[in-house]
Amino acid sequence: MGEVDVNTERDKKYIPPGMVGAYFRRVADPDPFVRDIQDEPSAFMLYADICTKCGVCAEECPVYYGQPSARMHPVERSRQVVQLYRKHATWWGRLKNLIWPKPDFEEEDAELFAQRMYECLTCRRCAVYCPVGIDHSVITRVGRSLVDYMGLTPPALAQGTDNSFETGNLEGASTEAMIDSVEFLEEELNEETGLDIPIPIDKEGADIYFVPPSGDVLVYAENLLGMAKVFYAAGANWTMSSRAFDGANFGFTTGNNFSMRFEAKHYIDEAEKIGCKTMVMGECGHAYRVMKHMAAAGLWWGTLPFEITSAFEYTAELVEAGTIELDPNRNDEKVTYHDSCQFAAGCNIVDEPRTILKAACSDFEEMDGAGATQWCCGGGGGLSALRSAHDFRMDISGKKKLEQLQATDAEVVSTSCLQCRTQLKELVRHYKLPQKVTGVHEMVYSSIVLKGENPLNAEDAPRLRSGETPSAEG
Predict the structure, then answer these.
(1) Do 389 and 407 have their domain in common?
(2) Whether pLDDT at 311 is above 50
């Protein structure tokens, strides 16, 4: 795919006069609605002032790596947001615009601006290598917030947010669909192991409230099955919720702070209703980062009456303590690991998935550049949910990750995030690569040793990898 064509003839969305200015004045003013994200506007304004435009960020940007053009340069993308801020939220910018007025957007095209905000993966790799630590994802998120304010958020993300408001999950699935899926999975576990392994729902008084992404409940259930086995082996008193079972947060992705807070509060309220001691978040980096490092650490609703941890930290602790046993011989293929940007760079969860995989697999090897500075899969920042961005993800943002997949001789690529799994699966399918892509707890699902299990079926757990649970419709 060549450079992105931005000259396609189309009708341009009408943006009312004053809308952009009203938004950026709100960013500049001490408005609590905007200052929800660890004082993000202050960081944004600092970055706007200290960027030297040295270009180091571009050298480490997966999007610029895929297409080294001015359009894909992180500084050039951020410049558009910074210019709008200075134009509308500084006295000298307002004065300049009064004397020499200019359109807010290039070619007076707000939709082109919106498209460019979704050409950043918000992977935060730039912040690691920038000499002064500028995180362009912060600036991009301010830009996306403006995009959302103008009603230009990509439809798939906007619909997911609407679904969260209406049903409590991105899929828009009913409570009945969730319960049907879980009952089906309980039957599968019983058929496979000969054991009654429960997946409790709405159990008040449970010590642990488990919150996976909805995709791990309704479509690709191996991670949920793995966690159910972990809880069973550990003798844990746990539950899920039929009302709040989707550990995801599109409000964080779209820059909609109200939605981000609503989605987090929905699960906090449910945890308090259950009365749990610990909320264990599943394999979704966005949701975990918002819940643990923003809502809880930022005291959005005061000190929470329960602890928050990730499934990786929970399971790794059990593995290290010898509480659960994993048989690596049940996963005898060569396995490598892709670090999710949100878990690794955003939450410093780097060692725990490796602790699990090394115990669950007989042949584990690191991918080139592994760790907190791992190259993004190419579908970060919500892009993996956008079918409209498929070519962009395959040919541009996913180019570096494709090269890493082609360079490894691993047969299985495991990763810690549903968005990463979606993108990696599409890369593998699009380029006809030989690897299988799994979640981390999918490897646990096929390797955990359960007392009393049917030994004839114990090694057949991976058979569900190619299947799907019942439809989420209902």
Answers:
(1) yes
(2) yes
